[in-house]
């Protein structure tokens, strides 16, 4: 039971943050059009810095766009808050299910000490998992509130 819960939490933490995290590099020189066509009457090397070979891929600007937000003020705490929010969407139902499973074990124990011990352990680990997940969210909220208060 303990190994299953830890495995579920670790798997969720590994899979969820990876979704959609792709960085794209825009290597189009600034001021030039992004298509392959060259406007009539213009030289294709007009926007290339001096000393750069236009065919070598060097020169121009490299712009990394943030795929996670359209806001310019998106920082690490906002990213972590988004990740924790996604984890909470998956973790809270899992925690509730484990607490219900522990309750089921208590009901079906019928006074047998070994079964009651198993149910008590299941409930304990479900509550500990819940405290860890919700504690991570609470710590992140405190850190973000402190940073916001300091910077304003």
TrEMBL record:
<dbReference type="Pfam" id="PF18895">
    <property type="entry name" value="T4SS_pilin"/>
</dbReference>
<keyword id="KW-0812">Transmembrane</keyword>
<feature type="transmembrane region" description="Helical">
    <location>
        <begin position="121"/>
        <end position="140"/>
    </location>
</feature>
<protein>
    <submittedName>
        <fullName>Uncharacterized protein</fullName>
    </submittedName>
</protein>
<keyword id="KW-1133">Transmembrane helix</keyword>
<dbReference type="InterPro" id="IPR043993">
    <property type="entry name" value="T4SS_pilin"/>
</dbReference>
<keyword id="KW-0732">Signal</keyword>
<feature type="transmembrane region" description="Helical">
    <location>
        <begin position="83"/>
        <end position="109"/>
    </location>
</feature>
<feature type="region of interest" description="Disordered">
    <location>
        <begin position="33"/>
        <end position="59"/>
    </location>
</feature>
<feature type="signal peptide">
    <location>
        <begin position="1"/>
        <end position="24"/>
    </location>
</feature>
<feature type="compositionally biased region" description="Low complexity">
    <location>
        <begin position="33"/>
        <end position="53"/>
    </location>
</feature>
<keyword id="KW-0472">Membrane</keyword>
């Amino acid at each position: 039971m303990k190994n299953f819960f830890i495995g579920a939490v670790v798997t969720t933490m590994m899979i969820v943050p990876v979704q959609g995290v792709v960085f794209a590099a825009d290597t189009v020189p600034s001021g030039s059009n992004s298509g392959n066509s060259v406007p009539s009457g213009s030289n294709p090397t007009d926007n290339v810095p001096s000393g750069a070979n236009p065919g070598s891929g060097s020169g121009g600007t490299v712009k990394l766009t943030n795929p996670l937000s359209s806001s310019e003020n998106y920082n690490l705490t906002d990213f972590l808050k988004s990740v924790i929010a996604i984890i909470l969407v998956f973790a809270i139902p899992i925690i509730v299910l484990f607490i219900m499973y522990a309750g089921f074990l208590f009901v079906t124990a019928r006074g047998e000490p070994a079964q009651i011990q198993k149910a008590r352990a299941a409930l304990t680990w479900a509550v500990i998992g819940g405290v860890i997940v919700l504690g991570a969210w609470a710590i992140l909220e405190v850190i973000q509130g402190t940073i916001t208060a300091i910077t304003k």
